[in-house]
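Posted in: Structural Biology > Protein-Ligand Complexes

Title: Requesting predicted complex, flavin mononucleotide in pocket

I'd be grateful if someone could produce the 3D structure tokens for the following input. Sequence and ligand are given below.
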Amino acid sequence: MPKKRPWNNTRVSEVLGITFPILLGPFGGGMSSVTLAAAVSNTGGLGSFGANYLAPEGITELVRELASMTPNPFNINLWVPLPGEREAELSATQLEESAQRLSPYATLLGIAPGAAPPQSFPDFDEQLAALLAARPPVISFVFGVPSPSALLEARARSIVTIATATTVDEAVVLDEAGIDIIVASGSDAGGHRGAFLCDVDESLVGTMSLVPQVVDAVSAPVVAAGGIADHRQVQAAFALGAEGVQIGTAFLVTSESTASAVHKDVLKSARARTTVLTSVFTGRAARAVPNEMTRGLKGVESELPGYPLQSGLTLPIRRAATSAGNPEFVNLWAGQSAVLAPSGSAVDYLRRLVDAVDEVSPNER
Ligand SMILES: Cc1cc2nc3c(=O)[nH]c(=O)nc-3n(C[C@H](O)[C@H](O)[C@H](O)COP(=O)(O)O)c2cc1C
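-- Reply #1 --
Done. Output follows.
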């Protein structure tokens, strides 16, 4: 029988040029931190930054900043728009209904009632053009696959590409498109579900089931994501055939993370043992710790405007609640293993995780 390669010498570490095949999950919507991304890259993993909300100039500046903070590879993540999503407009009726639904929360938080005008979002093609021109070592995508010409351009510039699949079918689409590394994101994961072929409720495969099926179906190396926080889960992911792991929630609570205090406090509490999939905050299903807002709007979830309109509508409430330290009206994104995350720095967490995985890797000796 051929000897198994050591867990820290997989195709993922080789392709990315990193020491440990441990990826920091990108956090979109302004939740990423350059300090955290650089810390992970400087410790031998792959630091990532979610740039979905940034204008092209911001992306250029971000790549420059991260390159000055680490000599090692790092990753910048964008959201591929789903068809029609960015063109959707809010009708006067939707605006009125939304104002009615959200007013009680606004009143509680002492901010002006009524619906805010929807946010405008940067154009994806312009974001991608800026990203390719800035030439970071790694770029990643969620909610779909970029165009063949963009992937060719990435290859020509020696940029490694990563994309997320939530189902085997999505993984096959990414593999056929020539994506270098596929993240198999199980439904245990925190934040938005990245489904792009079917509705989210038909794309909810747990990490334990998804990873080996994706490994069997694709030729690209697979990174397991969703509910991974401690060494036992990393070990399990490699046993399932993954050649890397992507960790989000456990890094979100570290000291280098700029997640809000209210968010970190909830993630560190027993309350984070329970999570739900909810679209009340952004109009798109995401895993979060339940609170008054998820429960209050649950009954009307299917009537709410989709992403990104709902995200713009709830933003003033989420911001005010975050400033007030009130967890009941904040999108408390969380994966299912939040309570296994240790407190402290990301550097310590990563080093201890690597040591612990090494200790329990008898197949490597
Ligand atoms: C706060 C938060 C924001 C996220 N934003 C993004 C994003 O913008 N793009 C992306 O590809 N994944 C995003 N994710 C998913 C993570 O990158 C990662 O795959 C996931 O958190 C792994 O599951 P875990 O949270 O159980 O560790 C986000 C996750 C969280 C918790």
